Structure formats: structure tokens, C-alpha cells
Amino acid sequence: MSSVTFLNTPEALRELADQTHSPCQCSLQRCAGWDSVNDTEWPTAHMQHVATLRDPEVHEPTFEEHHPQGTRYDSADAPVALKFFPYNRCEVFACTRCQQHVMRYTEFGGYYVDHRARRLDAAHISD
């Protein structure tokens, strides 16, 4: 069992997203949508695991996506919908330098592994 908090409501995620953060120049600033961030780019020394969006009661979360406005998976303005892919497979981290929150999940396909990250923005959290 994970020691981080399971966030299962949009309100709980908004509360986290609304926390004050300062500008940061790390490699994650480019991650407005789901961007690939390999292990050498991920600022491990400055990232603190603070929450999970993955329901511990669901063995295999859905791969269904939620795009009511016609956005795409990697769109910076795509809704953050907790019950849908990839949010239902995410961990949330906070930068210890700037307090910016970032969601991260790992995509597996055939013979590759792709770590993806997206900065948490309260404006895109969907009910």
C-alpha cells in the first residue's frame, strides 16, 4: 500500500493545484500537455511524490479518454478527468524548489517504456 494520498475528487486535485508555486527553470516547464520525459530529464533530486490518482481498488483502469471539446491526449488544454486515461494511472509530484505539481505516468507499448509528465493546472481539471 502506498503512503501517499489517493486523490479521487476534482476538488481535492484542484486544492493541490491551487497551492502557491514560484517560477522554475527545470526541464518540466515544457510539460503543458503530456510530454515524454526520460529518466535523465526528470529532476529526481527535486521531486517529492505527494499523491496518486490511481484508485487502489481498481486492478486495471480504463484506457478510455475524455475529450468533450475535441482535444487530443497531448493537448495542453485537454481536460484532466480523474476517471479517464491517463489520469487514472498517474502519480503526482511536487518540485521542492518551486512547489509546482506535476502528474506522471509510464506508458508501456510492445518493447518500449515512455515516461510522460504534465504540469498540474487547476483550470483544466474537469468534473
Structure overview:
- This protein has 127 residues and is mainly β.
- The protein has one domain (5-124).
- The chain contains one helix and six strands.
- The protein has one helix at 10-17, and strands spanning 5-6, 35-36, 47-52, 91-95, 101-109, 112-119.
- Strand 5 (101-109) and strand 6 (112-119) form a beta hairpin.
- The longest helix has 8 residues, at 10-17.
- The model has no long low-confidence stretch (mean pLDDT 91).
What's this, in brief?
The protein is mostly beta strands and 127 residues long. The chain contains 1 helix and 6 strands, in the order βαβββββ.
Summary keywords:
six-stranded mixed β-sheet, 127 residues, mainly beta
Number-wise, the strands total 6
Binned strand content: 25-35%
Count helical runs: 1
Low-confidence region ranges? none
Q: Which structural class fits the helix and strand makeup?
A: mainly beta
Task: List the strand order in the largest sheet.
Answer: 1-3-4-5-6-2
Average pLDDT metric: 91
The helix content is under 10%
From the N-terminal CA to the C-terminal CA, the straight-line distance is: 27 Å
Please indicate the count of domains. Answer: 1
N to C succession of SSEs: EHEEEEE
**Overall morphology:** globular
| Main beta sheet | 6 strands, mixed
Radius of gyration: 14 Å
